[in-house]
Amino acid sequence: MLITEMLSRNACMYSDEVSLIEREPAKDKRREITWSGFEEQANKFANVLVERGIKKGDRVAILMMNCLEWLPIYFGVLKTGALAVPLNFRFTAQEIKKCLEAVKVKVLVYGPEFIERITEIKDNTSDVTNYIFVGENYPDNSANVESFKDLLKKASSKEPEVEVIDADDAALYFTSGTTGTPKPIIITHANLTSACNTENRHHHQKHGDNFLCIPPLYHTGAKMHWLGSLIVGAKAVILKGVKPQWILKVISEERATIVWLLVPWAQDILDAIEGGEVDIDEYNLDQWRLMHIGAQPVPPSLIVRWKKHFPNHMYDTNYGLSESTGPGCVHLGIENIHKVGAIGVPGFNWEVKIVNDEGKAVSKGIVGELILKGPGVMKGYYNNPEATSKVLKDGWLYTGDMAKQDGDGFIYLVDRKKDVVISGGENIFPVEIEDFLRAHKDIKDVAIIGMPDKRMGEVPVAIVEVKPERELTEEDILKFCQGLPRYKRPHGVFLDKVPRNPTGKIEKPKLRDKYCNDMSQII
Predict the structure, then answer these.
(1) DSSP 3-state helix, strand, coil percentages of the chain (rounded to 5)?
(2) For site-directed labelling of 324, which of 186, 201, 258, 350 has its Cα 20 to 30 A away?
(3) How many other C-beta atoms are found inside a 10 Å radius of the C-beta of residue 435?
């Protein structure tokens, strides 16, 4: 069953029940939409696109912050047989232009936050024939820009007469770009359906659950976790804002049962509790049954702290990447909290291997590259057979992540293949040092990168973000690192903010550009 068919089924079975809620605590705003309203809005938008000549295989880009309209627009695109192209809200005007032209987008749907960026490129961006604005304040100088709200008033709510099958292309997702130039990934309708099945099998969503969605919907992560709720017609809350007080307030008021957090947000919640900024006894949290984390390695010390304050929570961690249609190809499992630190075991319907540079499986305990096979593996990179052939081999997806497996079969992520620091011929995995440093009570975040070294080739250095109102010197940190084996100890420390993308991954290319390209910095 296609995910668009799941929506139609929910609209029939749960017509007047709430499907989505939007909360914006900063403005004390709340909006909601029923399942029938969700389906009607998706159908209307699909018909708007068809009237503008959009057909199967065309591309429609979505450049919006999380909001109540986001998912109905996405489903409307899918119902036409066109490919939805969600865009990163952090992209500059020129990056947006490159993405639009790379996949020949015909329609761009955008929100008020992007008026200036779109105005900058609108008159010299090829292929885009229609711009649709979603928001209350219609932009000035809006030639060739139509209002989403006005278009829907005139559109038919009937299901568009377009045949879409499992094998059809559904979406193009640009990689996060933490390891280089973002590439568009082709996701099929079958891939999306597989994400529904995997997520629901892992986290056992029921119709009465309520999923709190915080991460950006343009990324596969948040959306694919939500698909586990879609399949059972469970509602979800879209939260605009990530302050600990807002997260806890909305969980309490909307009776959320499942929350997916990124590591920085979980840390912020714990810091706020332990710093006395919030009192969890003031919130109604008894219904909150599951907290899970993905998108990056999870420090075991974080979960120890979490269970201290939320002892009754089930916990899971999820591993995935855009090329695997998001999270779930590896997951810890809520019954395996004793293995915190591992990313887990193969997910539902997935196979996993750890291989050497020749593609041969390595023994347990040996570090190698993690490769995956399953129904969520992408079709390939759009119009890029060379890049596709490098990561798809005999049905296996080569992730570029280095991992090892313990005697019980649990997989531990060691690092990105490109992030490994090779010092004097010795492989040093930054995640191990980062986990060690995050155990320091005054450290908020840390990143380890390789600094060019005349003698050793490169050596590890630490970029350390200190918690607010705490004091740490470079000397304090280097002294703390005496607890590491000598070859893993950072050769230098920079006190700075650790940049992360919207899905929580450390943006190490930015740090390398900042600290490693200045030849005077070479140790």
Answers:
(1) 35, 30, 35
(2) 258
(3) 18
CATH class as words, domain 3-16+27-191 = alpha beta
Cβ atoms of 184 and 218 closer than 8 Å: no
pTM: 0.83
Residue 335 corresponds to which tokens in the numbers above? 């019954």
Per-residue pLDDT tens for 233-280?
999 999 999 999 999 999 999 999 999 998 778 888 998 999 999 999
CA 38/CA 354 separation, integer angstroms: 42
Q: What homologous superfamily does CATH list for 420-521?
A: ANL, C-terminal domain (3.30.300.30)
CA 206 distance to own-chain centroid: 23
Which tens digit of pLDDT belongs to each residue from 162-175? Answer: 999 999 999 999 88
Structure tokens at 461: 């250095």
Distance CA(117)–CA(77), nearest Å, equals: 23
Residue 411 and residue 523: Cα distance in Å, rounded?
A: 35
Domain ranges in the chain? 3-16+27-191, 420-521
Look at residue 164 in the predicted model and tell me its pLDDT: 97
Domain 420-521 in the same topology as domain 3-16+27-191: no
SS3 state at 80: coil
